[in-house]
Amino acid sequence: MDVFDDLTAEYRQLDAVLAALTPDQWAHPSAAEGWSVADVVLHLAQTEEAIDHRSSVAGKVYLTSAEATVDGVVEDMVAAERGISPADLLARWRKAAFATPDALRAHPAGTRLSWVRATLSPRTLATTRIAEHWAHAQDITVPLGIPYPDTARLRHIAWLAHRTLPYAFALAGLPDTPVHCDLTAPDGARWTFGDPAAPTRITGPAAEFCRVGARRLAPEETGLATEGPHAADALRLVRNYAA
Fold first, then answer.
1. Dist. CA 103–CA 93, nearest whole Å
2. What is the pTM of this model?
3. Among residues 16, 141, 175, 180, which is most buried (max CB within 10 A)?
4. Shortest CA distance to 43 belongs to which of 19, 70, 65?
5. Which residues form the Mycothiol-dependent maleylpyruvate isomerase metal-binding domain (predicted)?
6. Strand runs (DSSP E) across the chain, as ranges?
7. What DSSP string describes 121-185?
8. What is the pLDDT of residue 53?
9. Residues of the chain whose pLDDT is less than 50?
10. 154-237: CATH homologous superfamily?
11. What is the CATH number of domain 3-144?
């Protein structure tokens, strides 16, 4: 699975939804508290624009203050530009988004890109963009009753969630416990992450695991099973992002 091709595919799936929205749907409340559908797309456009699309330099840092929170910064960014017409907003998001995969692919091996307060490889940054667009697609489509089928691209998101568990444990003041995830893909395939011998295990549908990591579904509302020390903590703390 090429992450850059899959990033383009995720953009295309969301683009097909956005292109068909009516003015009323653009103004409809999204599942992101306090944001309309238009606000969600504005946020996606702004964060795509924070990626420097010149292949010779790293990505821009859009979180500049040590005291600032990510949520606070993005709220301020959206509030500052709210009111753009849907047509202009869609064009703006398309311009930034569809330039991203090739720009990230063009970076030489070993490149580290600044993102928020971390540095990521181009592949990991592409993975975070899949995760963010997929999560916000839920915010748009679920309230509007629009289908947004799960795909094999969830594998990237599940990998990211598992990969960042040590960071989540550290933030919570818990020991770095190896976690094995044995997940069922949307097509029934089996996806595994981590050491199979790890005593801490999470099993169940990958789509639910990804939604828990995106904070779109509570662990107790899923069919995910946990076993071993800190397994419940892992499911409580898992996040689909790298910083």
1. 16
2. 0.92
3. 180
4. 70
5. 8-140
6. 113-115, 118-120, 179-184, 190-193, 200-205, 225-227
7. -HHHHHHHHHHHHHHHHHHHHHHHT------TTHHHHHHHHHHTHHHHHHHTT-----EEEEEE-
8. 53
9. 54-67, 243
10. SCP2 sterol-binding domain (3.30.1050.10)
11. 1.20.120.450
